[in-house]
Amino acid sequence: MRIANLSGRLILVTADGTGAVDVEAASSGRFGSNPQAVYDRWDEFRSWAADADLSTATPFAVEELGPPTPAPRQVLAIGLNYSEHAAESGFTVPHAPTVMFTKWVSCLTGPVTEVALPEGGHTDWEVELVAVIGKTARDVSEADAWDHVAGLTVGQDLSERITQSAGPSPQFSLGKSLPGFGPTGPWLVTPDEVADRDDLELGCSINGEQMQKGRTRDLIFSVPAMISRLSQKLPLLPGDVLFTGTPAGVGVGREPQRFLAPGDELVSYVTGIGELRQRFVATPTT
Ligand code: ZN
Predict the structure, then answer these.
(1) Which letter does DSSP use for residue 82 in this model?
(2) pLDDT at 286
(3) Domain assignments of the chain as residue spans, ordered by start
(4) pTM recorded for the entire structure
């Protein structure tokens, strides 16, 4: 099953990604139009959606899609979760998921956007698999963790590196939460729809040149490991968003370093899920 946020309304998406069925209309009001609210009734929604009629689907434009989770209560993101990326960043591989930060909710967008580059910044790319929670997770085992996932989507953890490492006690969240710095989508795909939920290819390219390519089997803390370990510290709530880390190939780890420039187009993908497309522009001068 695929769901998305079409101009603020929850839709079911056909398997080929071209057709939309409005959930509120198709369910005669049983489920509302709010894309975020559906995660609080995930099991009930999945049962209904399993028999939903998609033959009435109508075409839509991906440019009209918003984030599959527009207003999560928590966004949890992990750093240094692929060993080659930890090495290119100059760190040793962590033995516990300690490099945790958030992307504040205002930075979340849909899959196709224009992003203003902060003046004087070094804006970098990080393609990531994003998992969305479908059931409250508290002290869950790794074996049970996938049962708490509603679905998967593509994310870009755009990061302004100067802000990210500024100050005497650097923390990541501000430099990763600037406007438009959290594209997600294009839709949420339930884990049963992908070939292997524990081994998905992901990557990104700039102006057609491949920058990152990895596989989620190389995650240091897999999706279930991350959920299990985090759930021992705090509850993960329905609709919460987990950015699971980025593989090697970011700009700050290159020789010479490279950052996004006005006019660049960044395309990010997870095979079996979909792609994001960001075009970068200079911050308009006032
Ligand atoms: Zn990241």
Answers:
(1) B
(2) 66
(3) 2-60, 66-282
(4) 0.97
